[in-house]
Amino acid sequence: MSIEKPDLSDIHHNDWVDRHLHPSLQPYARLARLDRPVGTWLTLLPCIAALIQAAHGIPDFWRLLVFSLGALLMRSAGSTINDIWDRDFDKHVERTRFRPLTSGQVTLKQAVIFLFIQLMAAALLLFFINSYSRWLAVILVPLVIIYPLCKRFTYWPQAVLGAAFNWGMLMAWTDTANTLPCGAVYMWLGALTWQIGYDTLYAYTDIKDDERLGLRSTARRFGNKGIYWLSGFYAVSILFWGLAGITLSMHWLYYVAMVLVAIHLFWQLKSFDLQRPEKSHALFKANIYTGLLLVIAALLGVL
């Protein structure tokens, strides 16, 4: 008896976008990944943890709102940039074959105009943060733009994505405390190596298509030794986060939460299966719980 092959497409029709949005808005919602919010959560949750640590307590509501909108808008803009650069590749990849630009629901001109609107909306948030953080925001933009191109010439695009995705953690400190202590940088480095790990899981979903198209990723670099590389990056993340806790004088309960983070990451490693790309995708999404645990650790750490 043959086993039905799972559909790896990341566009799922008859969802809330199809049911509740006007047909003219649906392609733009999908272009901005509003139907797939996991990336926004993975951007926002570490940032919230940094806001808590920087404020040494519950962050100011308006600052939390600004950074939440920033995570949403920059992740959405980054997704649009990604689809613009990859429009000729996506049609050949099972996971991305139904995306708006690839499927012709949105033209290149329309996507560029939409990107301009997204970036202008994000730029408005600069008025609500301090000058130190504005300069960091300016540095972030080139990282967001070049990330999709990295898979053409390096096996480490996940490192660039990790730096960009978690940049808000640094900005959270500079805007809240007007300083960037070593502990904040350690937290960011931990998030960067964590993202290399979980985004490699994501890359294993596309590894066969990437090999055929000549695109590079950490999944292709690690190959059959992925479990060892993933274990290493996750271990380094825990090390950096532990070092950050010491440097920032976190409460001992912070380290209890870090043990839970380590257990969750270990479960991901135990569940990883090279022969089941759909499972790699599910494990990638499970990192939302890692982000939540980071927020809990930050809260416990400032008691």
TrEMBL record:
Membrane topology: Multi-pass membrane protein
GO molecular function, one term: 4-hydroxybenzoate polyprenyltransferase activity
InterPro entries cross-referenced by the UniProt entry: HB_polyprenyltransferase-like, Prenyltransferase, UbiA_prenyltransferase, UbiA_prenylTrfase_CS, UbiA_sf
Catalytic activity: all-trans-octaprenyl diphosphate + 4-hydroxybenzoate = 4-hydroxy-3-(all-trans-octaprenyl)benzoate + diphosphate
Class of the enzyme per the UniProt entry, highest EC level: transferase
The keyword Cell membrane appears for this protein: yes
Chief location bin: membrane
EC number: 2.5.1.39
Domain of life: Bacteria
Location in the cell: Cell inner membrane; Membrane
Pathway connected to this protein: Cofactor biosynthesis; ubiquinone biosynthesis
Family, similarity comment: Belongs to the UbiA prenyltransferase family.
Name under which the protein is recorded: 4-hydroxybenzoate octaprenyltransferase
Record organism: Pelistega ratti
